[in-house]
Amino acid sequence: MEFKQLNIHAWETFDKGQDIHMQAAPSQAELLYKNYKVIKGKLKSHTKDTILEKYGNAATDEDLSMELLLGQSERQVEYDRAGRITKGQEKALPRSKYEEDVYINNHTSVWGSWWKDHHWGYKCCKQMIRNSYCIGAAGIEVAEATTDLMKANITHKEATKEITSPMEEKRLATWGTDIPDDLVLNEKLLAEVLKKVN
């Protein structure tokens, strides 16, 4: 049984990065296993001593310290994995785990107090960037001016739509867009370009 435990210890320490092999160096593996058992025993006794020193031994007739006596009660409280009380104490008012009403970067409203075009933002400056710095009413004016300018540019472009000439269509067609059926290539120029490429 001890040999089996020695093999298991050698495998586990090899997996953890130590260069131990039971068949290659059995003496080294056995020595390391003995050292491991000694260190583990010392750690166990040290942990036991610190617990006894802090809390005392209930099996002896020693009097318990006042800190422990005053901290005890007959009430049992059960907790879930998240640390919330499930049984044993009166229901407390639920508190949010998120910070509320925290104003950052000179803002006077919280993030998410304004909504436009499927985006959240700050109501005070109507910015939709989360960690932006608030510039107040001046920022609102600049944002409105840029949107007005963008709308004006779009309407101007739609009003002055140019019709492309047939020559431009042929030139665009050679770059991989739609190739018209009546496209005619200059064979002489094509041969010169192919000669330069090769």
TrEMBL record:
<keyword id="KW-0747">Spliceosome</keyword>
<keyword id="KW-0508">mRNA splicing</keyword>
<comment type="subunit">
    <text>Associated with the spliceosome.</text>
</comment>
<dbReference type="InterPro" id="IPR039974">
    <property type="entry name" value="Splicing_factor_SLU7"/>
</dbReference>
<dbReference type="GO" id="GO:0000398">
    <property type="term" value="P:mRNA splicing, via spliceosome"/>
</dbReference>
<dbReference type="Pfam" id="PF11708">
    <property type="entry name" value="Slu7"/>
</dbReference>
<feature type="domain" description="Pre-mRNA-splicing factor SLU7">
    <location>
        <begin position="2"/>
        <end position="113"/>
    </location>
</feature>
<comment type="function">
    <text>Involved in pre-mRNA splicing.</text>
</comment>
<keyword id="KW-0539">Nucleus</keyword>
<protein>
    <recommendedName>
        <fullName>Pre-mRNA-splicing factor SLU7</fullName>
    </recommendedName>
</protein>
<keyword id="KW-0507">mRNA processing</keyword>
<comment type="similarity">
    <text>Belongs to the SLU7 family.</text>
</comment>
<dbReference type="GO" id="GO:0030628">
    <property type="term" value="F:pre-mRNA 3'-splice site binding"/>
</dbReference>
<dbReference type="InterPro" id="IPR021715">
    <property type="entry name" value="Slu7_dom"/>
</dbReference>
<dbReference type="GO" id="GO:0005681">
    <property type="term" value="C:spliceosomal complex"/>
</dbReference>
